[in-house]
Amino acid sequence: MNMHLGKALSTLLATFGSIAAVAGEEVCPFQLHEIDTGIAEHQTIVPGSFTDPQSAEIAVLERVGGGVLVRILQLKAGEWRFVAGAAAEGQVAFVDVLQLDGRDHPVLYRDGGLAIIDVHQARDRAFVPFPLHVRAPEGGGLPRVDVTVDLNGDGLDDLVMPDADGFWMAMQKADGTFGTPVRLGPREPHLMEKAYGDERTYREVGITVQNIPWYLGRIHRLDYDRDGRQDLLFWNEDHFELHSQNTDGSFGATPRELATNVEFDFDGTYALAFQFGDRGVPSLLLGLGGRFDYTVLHGFHDLNGDGVADLVTVSFSGRRVFSLRGTFGIHFGRPEPGATTFAATPDTVVATPGPAGGLAWGYATQRYLDIDGDGATDFALAAVDTGLGGMTRAMVGKSITIDLALYRLRDNAYPSEPDAVRRVRTRFAPFDKRGVLFPLVLIGDIDGDGRSDLLTGNRWDRLSVHIGGEGPDPFAGEPQHVTVDLPSNELNSMMADLDHDGREDVVLFHPSETAANRVVVLMAGGA
């Protein structure tokens, strides 16, 4: 063990033996806990069950010396206590979490592979090498990147990493070990192109923590051949390539080519970033360069609950790139002997209420969820107004706005207008010493009734809780307000069922450049 890391871990064992919970203003439906996580330039907070599957725990990961220190904090008798830790050496590019033997394990990408950390033993549980290089983030951050996924549907987390010429996959076995990574899938289609604003080709950029989600979005999982096993599907220029799952949980090495009646231009919304060439910002803002009309494959999901995967596309249209309108097309899957087919024309559509071009850059998001607990999959769309009007309001009106729209599936159709719309607007104050407060939107079930609840933040010191109910607008009632400090970066806010009681809790991370970092945990129902 690196002496620097070992000394730091020993010190933290003593320093963080007990972390008292500090109750904020007692406001239903949460009990507030505040945790001092120490001074660190780069720190990442990850919820999970790292030592005890029945306890509320979070992992605190931070760079120390030449490696990363992992600390596990657990809620016991109303206090957050240090219960386990490990020190990992090597240059770490990103972190993730993988479930193994009924517990979560931190996963670190370092030295050409993924290290799975056992905090009980304070050492690597396994190291799975991958023949590729991931560039560390600029500025030395420690981001979380999702590279663990159950590829074959056996309930075990597998490891997947992108490459220029396909995807490396290591399957978890029943005994907790991992097979040798194998490469499946076609090459990246945009390797020789340049994303807007970048002087380098996509190949020259290489694999980075920023573009790994772009790459992995090209992996599609569905039971295409209707044999009860999950298959892998890839789009390759003008056809699909199917890797059927074998009886042992592996995938066939030689793909089967499939045609489709559904027309689209690209696979994944990230492809928009490569379509604007050398056009200047004024041209894109004012729509001087002509009209854009693109349709992309958005993925596969069983939306109507019939056990058959449905195909989803999203079409973009407009002259100004930051104001592109969007329409989601849903093609319900039709079971055929040994196959799944999709009609050329969408069975139902969802029109975005605001600009959709931000889907390529993260200014807009789309989620599948069951809003009312009826078993059908509903649509949630959230978008920042990046159009000319929205930018003008930010600079002149001094506000940033997120529009959230919810669409319920009824009788195999989505409505032409959203069932519910919420606008979350924060004051745009670029010179505030706290930074710019971005509107916060979280969706989860905090009361365990099976319905989605909406949490929003539009000011520094308050979280508004909209409990989901019945009726056309599930969030029509007056919100409950919780007095709590909100992070300026919405990515530092997350929801997870920490204590496994069927109610989702809220974790708010507050990094600091001048003092100790802190985490505020809102336990649903009290703990």
Strand content: 35-45%
Radius of gyration: 23 Å
- Note the total helix count: 5
Taken from the alpha-carbon principal axes, the silhouette is globular
The stretches of 5 or more residues where confidence is low (pLDDT under 50) are: 1-27, 386-397
Mean pLDDT: 86
Terminus-to-terminus distance: 37 Å
Give structural attributes:
single chain, 527 residues, mainly beta, 5-stranded mixed β-sheet, 4-stranded antiparallel β-sheet, 5 helices, globular, disordered N terminus
Protein model, in words:
This protein is mainly β and 527 residues long. It has a domain at 1-140. The strands form 10 sheets. It has a 5-stranded mixed sheet with strand order 20-21-22-23-26, with no helix packed on it. A 4-stranded antiparallel sheet has the order 1-37-36-35, with no helix packed on it. β3 (57-64) and β4 form a beta hairpin. The longest helix is centred in the first third of the chain and has 13 residues, at 3-15.
Overview in brief:
The chain has 527 residues and is mainly beta. Helices cover 7% and strands 41% of the residues.
